[in-house]
Amino acid sequence: MTLTGIECWSESAQLECVAVCRPAALEVATEMEASAVGFIGAVSRQDAEDASGRLCEALTRFGCRLFDLGDFLPESARAVSDASVNRVFVRDTAAVVGRQLVTGTAAFAARIAEFDATHAALAELIHGGPRDAAPVEGTGAGLEFGDVFLLDEERIFVNLGLRSDARALQGFLETAWAAGFQEVGVVCIPEHLGIIHLDLAFNVLGPRAVLARTFLKHLPVRVITPAQAPQWESFEGYFTRRGRKVLALPASEAPCFLSNYIFLGPQLLLASQSAAPRLQPLVKELGIEVEGVDIAALERGNGSVRCLTLPLKRRATYA
Ligand SMILES: NC(=O)NCCC[C@H](N)C(=O)O
């Protein structure tokens, strides 16, 4: 079976098809193992599987067609993938940008082989076998898609920090222009903050607002277009000039998963059960509803709902 018609132009249009990946066969048994793979703490296989089941159930209940990449792994990639506890965090590995699948390159050594395995599964799902999507690596530079947001049909917002770097951005810009986007805004989260991806500090709230941790207002945005010289804008100015209000994410102890949600439809987002009650009052004024799902066991991997889902198809318009 192959999937036809992949297409994504925003973060919040109706989510029609989404990829996830079932947890690996290995568990993370000790604090040292957790540290080796970028987890916050140990997690048993059973707890991870139960949480993954609840996530899949919630996505299906809200009408998404679900593809578990574990079902599409070619034989040659299966053993490595089964031993990769981070494989549940499919978001970082690739993205559908316009009508194109763009693959990333892991900057964290523990994830390099897992990215390759997941790319092989995506190729199987989308092309029915190996085929280069639009790899943006080339220079060995990192690009992980927890750092990339499709703001709308024209704009993409990217973080260069712990996991994504400027060399990879060059290749990504060419891909973005070829896909039809006209502007890429770039922010650089300082590495010493230890925030591995932008989606742990930021997310969109539909077409008229974004949610951002307050430190982001201090970081300038480099605005890049295909034809003009890059410009600097302030963080808040960048968004307000483009018709989006910046809502401050309430202070929260690390790890902070409040921003790590996914839009299921223009007025509905799915967050973890612990984040949902804190998000609901924030987004009420925008007419957005929040659904919660108990994935605390998977959050021990240092990611939440956005990291665990890879949108393959969103309805092209908000209508
Ligand atoms: N977008 C995300 O923030 N993804 C979470 C990835 C967590 C994983 N343990 C990692 O270190 O890459």
TrEMBL record:
Pathway(s) per entry: Amino-acid degradation; L-arginine degradation via ADI pathway; carbamoyl phosphate from L-arginine: step 1/2
Pfam family, one: ADI
Gene Ontology MF terms in the entry: arginine deiminase activity; transferase activity
Reaction catalysed by this enzyme: L-arginine + H2O = L-citrulline + NH4(+)
A GO BP annotation: L-arginine deiminase pathway
EC number(s) from the headed UniProt entry: 3.5.3.6
Keyword list, A-Z: Transferase
UniProt KW Transferase keyword: yes
Gene3D superfamilies the record matches: L-arginine/glycine Amidinotransferase, Chain A
SUPFAM superfamilies in UniProt: Pentein
Record PANTHER family: ARGININE DEIMINASE
Protein name as annotated: arginine deiminase
Organism for this UniProt entry: Corallococcus terminator
